[in-house]
Design brief:
about 220 residues; 6-stranded antiparallel β-barrel; 5 helices
């Protein structure tokens, strides 16, 4: 489990590509200060497992499904990534519940500055937008952000100066691809509502049945 509060910007030092999988070696002296084999690290919001590490590098394996459904597949040597270690049980919860299980990708449509904020419009699929709500939470490349506008195929988020300077959203450009993880709690609520609706639709109890039985 993560919070969406980025700890460090890492740099891709090596990429090993298989037919459908990948192996990445990332540089980050801060992240490896407290790291162990098997630890979970969010890389651009994707939960990955540490398979090796040294004084300032660590290596992760990426499965075919993750390669296919996230922007990890576009990473090359020299690219910068957002990094966050799994939340410590005794740590402060500064963002929102982020699982590191990306729901899909979006594309940056526009970035515009308004006083001390930078507004970012992101194009997303309708399937993703149904989980978005005004003033709700969303993780963009692993960054916990608040949604300020929702349209059928677009959301808008706002970056404070610190987020702009300390995450990769500050250096990403229009048409760049970003990972999207919808709010975990919202997804569970909608799933439960859909299940209740299906059960209600499939019910054999009708108004005629109720009237015939004295209701």
């Amino acid at each position: 489990m993560f919070t969406g509060i980025i700890e460090d910007l890492g740099k891709v030092k090596a990429v090993k590509s298989g037919a459908n999988s990948m192996q990445l070696t990332l540089e980050s002296s801060k992240i490896v200060e407290d790291i162990h084999l098997g630890d979970s690290i969010a890389v651009n919001g994707v939960c990955l497992t540490v398979t090796a590490f040294s004084n300032n590098h660590f290596t992760v394996e990426i499965m075919p499904e993750t390669v296919k459904s996230t922007n990890i597949r576009s990473l090359q040597i020299g690219h910068v990534v957002n990094l966050e270690r799994a939340m410590a049980a005794n740590g402060r919860f500064g963002g929102h519940f982020v699982s590191g299980h990306v729901d899909g990708t979006g594309v940056i449509l526009r970035k515009r500055k308004l006083e001390n904020a930078v507004y970012v419009d992101i194009g997303i699929d309708r399937e993703l937008s149904k989980y978005c709500m005004l003033k709700g939470s969303v993780a963009i490349d692993g960054i916990s952000l608040t949604i300020f506008e929702v349209q059928p195929t677009q959301i808008t988020v706002s970056l404070i100066p610190l987020t702009f300077s300390e995450t990769i959203l500050g250096i990403k450009r229009e048409q760049d691809i970003v990972n999207i993880e919808n709010d975990l709690l919202g997804k569970y609520v909608i799933k439960q509502l859909n299940q209740k609706q299906e059960k209600s639709t499939n019910s054999t109890i009708t108004m005629d049945f109720l009237r015939q039985n004295g209701f």
